[in-house]
Amino acid sequence: MKLREQDHLAWPFFEDAHRRLAADLLAWTTREIPHSAAPESDADVDATCRDLVRRLGDSDWLRYCVPASHGGAFEALDVRALCLCRETLAQAAGLADFAFAMQGLGAGPIALYGSDELKDRYLPNVRDGKAIAAFALTEPEAGSDIAAMRTTAHRDGQGWILSGEKTFISNAGIADHYVVFARLPDVGDRAFGAFVIDAGTPGFAVTDRIRTLAPHPLGTLIMHEVRIAPEQMIGERGKGLRVALGTLDVFRSTVAAAALGFARRALREASMHAKSRKAFGKNLADHQLTQARIARMALAVDASALLIYRAAWTRDRIADRVTREAAMAKLFATESAQRVIDDAVQLLGGRGVIAGAPVEQLYREIRALRIYEGTSEIQKLVIAGDLLGE
Fold it and tell me: What's the rounded Cα separation, in Å, for the pair 87 and 74?
């Protein structure tokens, strides 16, 4: 069996710059990120993430997280490039994808909606890997229901005062800045704001480290009368949800791309095992049940790629918003990757559940992607709402 993992680069969704990016990044990950067991302790996870951000910056891969005006690779954030980066990094290591993704998501609101002053202050360090970024939207009682958030921001004449709590925040404790979303009760019931808060600001604290299936730096943020300057607001007063949803509209397709990378790695591992493992007198690959399983996995991978890069191409070339397309891509790719990886574990048998084995790590990495940046259930509502609202 021949695995043609780069065939999709010939699709008309891509330009030569994207093809070069994919080839160069694949070569870099093969050389720089050898597969190994994921770190387990919080200290090791934090140190690994810091090191990955630094190396990604040193090798110029974080240029794809910022626009050309601030040292980026493209004039504006290019979703196809972001997806290719996440797909490729995810095949190498879950934390490598995580480190890249959070630099993009944590800088995205600033790049898309921030003032020139905010862009000048934050984007160059994100690009160079000298500063770690974070995106703080989720709250204990406001996950999928963003409008239910309770964190508030009040204007006191000298700036903004924020109070509240955020949870399940990636890079909590290691980030240098956090993009935080808050309700603006002084402006109106449905008014929200987006703000940049520097780590170490008085009243701002990280508590309750959260341990998950796949070790990532996650935690809870507590804000008690955090005072920040008025220019730390991103975008227009009262339009914070526009900043949040507009940013997620760009990066949701990249979550699907990470799932695609995990699924590609699972298919590769399963295929190699099937060709080398003997059962009942012949290779697993010669059994029809194995062939049917591999075919189902390959179909899911290619169908996911088509949806992902349709959404990315549409955002880059046709439309400012791709809410339905991105929702379809994320829903299908993450759900499909879960099944593909499960198939790989089943095919490998006992070897698939050994702690630290590639498919065992993939099994733990994929589960969260069906939840964060909009659960599968929310994606279904988005898709149906778009169609039925016409």
Answer: 19
- Residue 373 annotated to the active site: yes
Residue 291 one-letter amino acid: Q
Q: Which residue has the tokens 């149906």?
A: 384
Q: Which of 117, 365, 373, 390 is catalytic?
A: 373
Q: Number of helices (H) and strands (E) in the chain: give both, helices first.
A: 10, 10
**For 242-388, which CATH superfamily applies?**
Butyryl-CoA Dehydrogenase, subunit A, domain 3 (1.20.140.10)
pTM of the model: 0.93
What is the C-alpha separation between 125 and 373, in angstroms, rounded?
25
Write the pLDDT tens digit of every residue in 249-295.
Answer: 999 999 999 999 999 999 999 999 988 877 787 787 778 898 999 99
**Residue 40: band (very low, low, confident or very high) from pLDDT cuts 50, 70, 90:** low
pLDDT-based confidence at 42, cuts 50/70/90?
A: low
Judge contact between 46 and 217, C-beta under 8 A. Answer: yes
Element (H, E) at 261: helix 240-276
**May I ask the CATH class of domain 135-239?**
mainly beta
User: How confident is the model at residue 1, as a pLDDT?
Assistant: 37
Q: Residue 309, class by beta-carbon neighbours within 10 Å (0-12 exposed, 13-18 middle, 19+ buried)? A: buried
Query: Which structure tokens are listed for 372?
Result: 């964060």
What is the rounded CA–CA span in Å between residue 187 and residue 183?
Answer: 9
Nearest to 356 by CA among 50, 39, 86: 39
How far, in Å, CA of 239 to CA of 171, rounded?
A: 25
